[in-house]
Amino acid sequence: MSNAVPVFEQGKLIRLKGINLDITEQKNAELALVDSNFRLKLSLDATNQGIYDHNLESGEIIVTANYARMLGYDPETFVETQQELIDRMHPEDVDRVMKNYIDYLEGKTDEYRTEFRQKTKNGNYKWFLSLGRVINKNSPPKEPERMLGSHIDIDRSKRNELKLIESEERFKRIFENAPIGLLRFDENAIIENCNEHFAQIIGTPVDKLIGLDMKTLKDPELPEILQEVLQGETKSYMGLYSSTNAEKQTQVKALFTTVFDAKKKVIGGIGIVEDVTAQLEAQKQLQESEARFSKKLFTPVRWLRQ
To answer: Residue 58 falls within a domain, yes or no?
Structure first.
């Protein structure tokens, strides 16, 4: 950059007098700042994140354009305030979020991090993760003056999470209330969970069955079957099960199948177990009855002589 002053002699310009300043370093810093801001904008847009600057005294909130766009509003006309933010929040989330907010301002928690639903311009609710940090006044008593942070759009991941929780709860209810015995075991054939019906069939409380190593079962056929199941096969079993924790023997029919993770790695298996004692006893009685009937039917009749 050059600053020059003209020098005249007898009304004629004879030279320029001045200094040249090397502003290369300053110019490079300015260009780096522009580039950094551009990269930050791209990053925020890519991650569905909006920045806010909350004046805790006035309630005014200055936000970035992406903050408004995530809610479906035009950044040029969108105005945010603390009251507007609360009014858009889902009624079920307000008390929890405000408690987290107040606890943080009062120093009861080390960070402000909370999830909530916000009503968008089209009337639908969207999930956000809110992060923030307080900036205190410079002069005593250094009370909170501003809060800087971001809102991150987590709607898709949160809805998937809620669907998974709902699915797990539904499976849990089916698992616990099924009219047949159900159990889940890990890759070492150790029982991780089982339902009450299975415990009744086996004659052992649930808490005693969880943690049981099924490779130690008395019937030598069962450990062999489980080993094949943990290699990816589906196997069935039928026999007299002798409990390891109770003096009970039960005729059972079972089906065991493998459980894989998302990478197709074996992580255990599940078993469906049915008490067939009464069924086998009924079959036995039927067979004995048929045998007696058959014997009577085909026994030669001795005719008495007149």
So the answer is: yes
| Percent helix, strand and coil across the chain, each to the nearest 5 | 40, 35, 30
The helix (H) or strand (E) run that includes residue 248 is: none
CATH number of the domain at 275, please: 3.30.450.20
Total domains, the chain: 2
- Whether omega for the bond prior to residue 91 falls within 30 degrees of 0, making it cis, is no
- Give yes or no: residues 200 and 114 share one domain: no
Number of H helices, E strands in the chain: 9, 13
Domain contains 167: no
For residue range 32-69, list pLDDT tens digits in order: 554 455 444 544 554 688 999 999 888 889 999 999 99
Dmax (CA) for the chain in angstroms is: 176
Contacts of 209 (CB under 8 A, 6+ apart): 183, 191, 194, 198, 199, 202, 245
Same domain, yes or no: 205 and 278: yes
60 and 147: one domain?
yes
For residue 141, whether the previous peptide bond is cis, meaning omega lies within 30 degrees of 0, is: yes
Q: What are the pLDDT digits (tens) for 252-279? A: 899 999 999 988 999 999 999 998 877 7
Q: Is residue 90 part of a domain?
A: yes
Asked if residue 251 is part of any domain, the answer here is yes
Residues 6+ apart with CB under 8 A from 270: 182, 183, 184, 185, 256, 257, 259
Q: What is the CA radius of gyration of the chain?
A: 39
CB 275 within 8 A of CB 201: yes
Alpha-carbon distance of 149 to 100, in angstroms, equals: 15
Q: Is 274 left (phi over 0), alpha (psi -120 to 50) or beta?
A: beta
Q: Are residues 196 and 251 in the same domain?
A: yes
Q: What is the residue type of 195?
A: N
Q: Which domain holds residue 278?
A: 176-283
Strands (E), 187-279: 191-194, 235-242, 249-260, 266-275
